[in-house]
Amino acid sequence: GFWGREVGHLAGHDLPLVPVQHQYLVTKSVPEVQALKEEIPVLRHLDGSFYLRMERDGLLVGPYESEQTMVQMSEWAQKGVTPGFGKELYPGDLDRLGPRLERNYILEIWTGWVH
């Protein structure tokens, strides 16, 4: 994760890692997911370059971005993660993710579910 480089420093290693922003989509409640008695395994679609997992009683889809679209946190790579940063969310950027999601038909299937 984004602390990887700093953890490496604690162990005396300079790891060549650059933190990146990761955008994902979470659906509203999905009745079929809500009815499940156990958590389903994470699905990783290598050709489509995304993963899908349960998130409460809905789904979370996280596309892996290309080098051209990912947003690197260069300042964090140079100066370390901002002190106090936890799990704050970045502003949504569907324009950045839309083409990858559309390529995998995710937006077409989930129109109306994504919030």
Question: Could you walk me through the main structural features you see in this protein, from its secondary elements to its overall organization?
Answer:
- With 115 residues, the protein is α+β, with helices and mostly antiparallel strands.
- It has five helices and four strands; from the N terminus they run αβαβββααα.
- Strands 1-4-3-2 form a four-stranded antiparallel beta sheet.
- A hairpin with a 4-residue loop joins strand 2 (43-45) and strand 3.
- The longest helix is centred in the C-terminal third of the chain and has 10 residues, at 94-103.
- The radius of gyration is 17 Å and the shape is globular.
- It starts with a helix and ends in a 5-residue tail after the last helix.
- The model is unreliable at 107-115 (pLDDT under 50).
Helix proportion range: 25-40%
The rounded Rg comes to 17 Å
Q: Give the count of helical stretches.
A: 5
Largest sheet: 4 strands, antiparallel
- Rounded mean pLDDT is 78
Q: What sequence of helices (H) and strands (E) makes up the elements?
A: HEHEEEHHH
Proportion of beta-strand residues: 5-15%
Shape: globular
Q: Give me the oligomer status.
A: single chain
Number of strands: 4
Gap between N and C termini: 25 Å
